[in-house]
Design a protein that fits this description.
Two copies of one chain form a homodimer. The first copy, chain A, has ten helices and 15 strands. The first copy, chain A, has 337 residues and is an alpha/beta fold. Chain A folds into two domains: 173 residues, Peroxisomal Thiolase, Chain A, domain 1 (3-Layer(aba) Sandwich), CATH 3.40.47.40; 154 residues, Stage V sporulation protein AD (Peroxisomal Thiolase, Chain A, domain 1, 3-Layer(aba) Sandwich). The first copy, chain A, has a seven-stranded mixed β-sheet, sandwiched between helices. In chain A, strands 4-3-9-7-5-6 form a six-stranded mixed β-sheet, with helices on both faces. In chain A, strands 8-13 form a two-stranded parallel sheet. Chain A is globular, with a radius of gyration of 18 Å. The two termini of chain A are 20 Å apart.
C-alpha cells in the first residue's frame, strides 16, 4: 500500500516491477549515440503511414506491443494502460491503442508523460488496484513541428535555444511481482512558471520545475544526489540543464552535477547532429528510460536512478496570446532488480 | 485498499468521501432547467478575460476554489489534483491551476474527464496514497467551437445532430474520511470505435463506449439497472442516448430506459434553447455531477448513481485525415452519505 513520505513523495512498499520494456525510434535517433540501445529503428520516418500523426501512432503501438511481448504476456493480461502524447487531443495515443482493447487512462503531461504514466501505473499496482499495467508515451518530430512551430516545408530557421523533438516511443510493463527493475517511490510535481515566454527555449521554461521536484524528492526522502547513480531529467537540453544546476545550487544548495544526465543531451550527438540545444519530446525520455536506463537497472550495472520527466504545458494558442510557459516535472525512483 | 471485481471494475472498500463540490456555468447554462443547481452563473461569458481560452481557465479555477472552500479546507490541504479539458495541450487546466501550487496529474479523456478524474482520485485516496485530492474539468463553448469547428464569427450552420459545448466546470474534493457522498467503485473504459466519421455527431460515436462500460460494470458487479436511481451518461445528447439504449437492448439484453439520464439532455431545454441534439463538453457532465447529482446524494434524495462519463477521442486533424471517431467511457459509482 502506498505510503506518503514528507510533503510530496509517495513510497511504494511492494516495489512494483517493470517486467518488460521497449523503445523504438526514428532514423535520426538511430544515428545517435544510443543507437545500440533501442529495440527497433525505423529507417522510414513515415513508418509507412499516410500522415505524420498516423506515423506517431504506429511508433507508439510498436513500443507497446514490443514491451508486452518482451514481458512474456499478452494484451489481454494488461489491466490498464496509462498513456499520452503531445498531439492535440492526444491522438497519437488514441489511434495507437484503439485496437488493443485495454482500459485506458489518458494522460496529458507534455514531455513529462513518461514519468507521469510510470508514477500513476506503479501507484495503482502497489495498491492492488491493478495486477499488470503499461506506461507509455511517444513523440514524432514531424507531427510536433507542424503543430507547435511551422510546417516542415516552410523551412523555418531554428534558433540556438531550440530543441529537436525526438521521433521515439517508450513503453514499460509494470507488475505487482516478477523479475526486473523496481519503482520504489514517486513525486507528482506542481506547476512552476518563472515567466519564460520564448517557445523556442523550452529547457529554460522547464528547468525550474525540475529543480523544484528534485529538491522535493531529496528533501522528502532525506537523501542526497550522491545516493543515486543518475538523476535523469527528461529533456532540458543544454541550456535547461545548465539552468537546472544553477537553480539547485543557488536556491536549494544542492549540487547534482556529479550524477546529472539529461535525456535531451543523451539521445543525439549535439555537436554533430544539428539539434541545437538537444532533443526533446515525450518520446525522448520515454525511449531512453525504456532502453538505456531500465536495461542497465535490469543487469545491475545501475542501482538507483531518479528519473524526473519534464514538461512544458503551453500550446501554440497560449504562446500567441502572450502567456508565459508553465512547466511541470514528475519524479520516479527506479532501482535495480 | 482497492479490490478488483470481475474483469474491469475496481471496488473501493474505504468508500472515499466527496467532502465538497462546486459547479459554475455560463449565461446560457444559467438560463437552462438546472439554473438553481449551480454555485455560480457567469452572466459575461468572457469571465472578464481577454480570450476564450483564458475565460475557460477562469471558470475552472472558480469551480476548484469554490469546491475547496465548501469542503472547509485550503489549497495547501490538497495532496493532488486530477484535471483535464478539451483544449489543445489542456491549457484550460494548466492556466487554471498554475498559481494553486498543488501537485497535478494532468488527464486527457475528452468529455469523459470528470469520470476519469473522479476514478483516479478515488482509487488513490482509497489506497492511502492521498489523503485529500480534487477532481475537476471544464469546457467553454467559444473556445471549443473555434478549435474543433469554426470561429464564431463565421456563423457556421449547425446540423441537427450537433451538440452545444457547455460553458461549465465542476470540481469535487475527495477525502479518505468525512461527511458526504461516497465513491464505491470505478470502471476504466476501453476505446470503442464503430466507424462513425461525422464530427457533428459525437453522440453516435460515443454511444458504443457508454454501452460497453455500462455492460462491463453491471456484469462485474452482478447488478441490474434497477439497482440504481440513475445511470447518468455524460453528454450523449438526444441521438446518442437513443442509440445507447438500442445498443444495450440489442447487444447486451440490458434495458436502462427506466433509470437513464444524460447530462447533455439535462443542462439545456433542448426544445427551447437551440442546442440541436443537446449539450456536450467536459464541463457538461462535470457541472451536473458536481451540483444536481452530488447535492441529492448528500441530502439522501438519491441513493445510488452510476455516472458514466463519455468522451470522443478525435481531433480536428484526425477527422480531416479521414479517421473515424474513437470513443471511451469511464464509470464511477456514487452513493449517498
Amino acid at each position: 500500500m502506498p505510503q506518503r513520505v514528507g510533503r510530496y513523495t509517495i513510497n511504494l512498499p511492494s516495489r512494483p516491477v517493470i517486467i518488460g520494456n521497449a523503445a523504438v525510434v526514428g532514423k535520426k535517433e538511430g544515428e545517435g549515440p544510443l543507437a545500440e540501445e533501442f529495440d527497433h529503428i525505423f529507417d522510414d520516418t513515415t513508418m509507412g503511414e499516410a500522415s505524420w500523426e498516423k506515423a506517431e501512432s504506429a511508433i507508439q503501438r510498436e513500443a507497446v506491443t514490443r514491451a508486452i511481448s518482451k514481458a512474456g504476456i499478452g494484451t489481454a493480461d494488461v489491466d490498464m494502460i496509462f498513456a499520452g502524447d503531445l498531439l492535440n487531443q492526444c491522438i497519437g495515443t488514441t489511434f495507437s491503442l484503439r485496437e488493443l482493447n485495454i482500459p485506458l487512462a489518458g494522460l496529458y503531461g507534455a514531455c513529462s508523460t513518461m514519468a507521469l504514466s510510470l508514477a500513476l501505473g506503479s501507484l495503482m499496482t502497489d495498491s492492488g488496484a491493478l495486477g499488470t499495467c503499461v506506461a507509455t508515451t511517444s513523440s514524432h518530430f514531424c507531427s510536433a513541428e507542424r503543430q507547435f512551430r511551422y510546417p516542415l516545408e516552410y523551412g523555418g530557421q531554428r534558433p540556438p535555444a531550440a530543441q529537436w523533438t525526438a521521433t521515439a516511443s517508450g513503453a514499460a510493463v509494470i507488475k505487482n511481482q516478477g523479475e526486473g527493475p523496481h519503482i520504489d517511490a514517486v513525486t507528482i510535481g506542481r506547476i512552476q512558471d518563472m515567466g519564460i515566454k520564448d517557445a523556442n527555449n523550452m529547457g529554460a521554461a522547464m528547468a525550474p520545475a525540475a529543480a523544484e521536484t528534485i529538491a522535493d524528492f531529496l528533501n522528502d526522502t532525506n537523501t542526497k544526489p550522491e545516493d543515486y547513480d543518475i538523476i535523469l531529467t527528461g529533456d532540458l537540453g543544454a541550456i535547461g540543464s545548465t539552468l537546472l544546476k544553477q537553480l539547485l545550487e543557488k536556491d536549494k544548495n544542492i549540487d547534482i552535477s556529479a550524477v546529472h544526465k539529461d535525456g535531451g543531451l543523451m539521445i543525439y550527438d549535439i555537436d554533430k547532429q544539428d539539434v541545437n540545444s538537444g532533443g526533446s519530446g515525450c518520446g525522448c525520455s520515454g525511449a531512453i528510460v525504456c532502453s538505456y536506463i531500465l536495461n542497465r537497472l535490469r543487469s545491475g550495472e545501475l542501482k538507483k536512478v531518479l528519473f524526473v520527466g519534464t514538461g512544458a504545458l503551453m500550446s501554440s494558442t497560449s504562446s500567441k496570446q502572450g502567456e508565459s510557459i508553465p512547466a511541470i516535472a514528475h519524479a520516479v525512483l527506479l532501482s535495480c532488480q
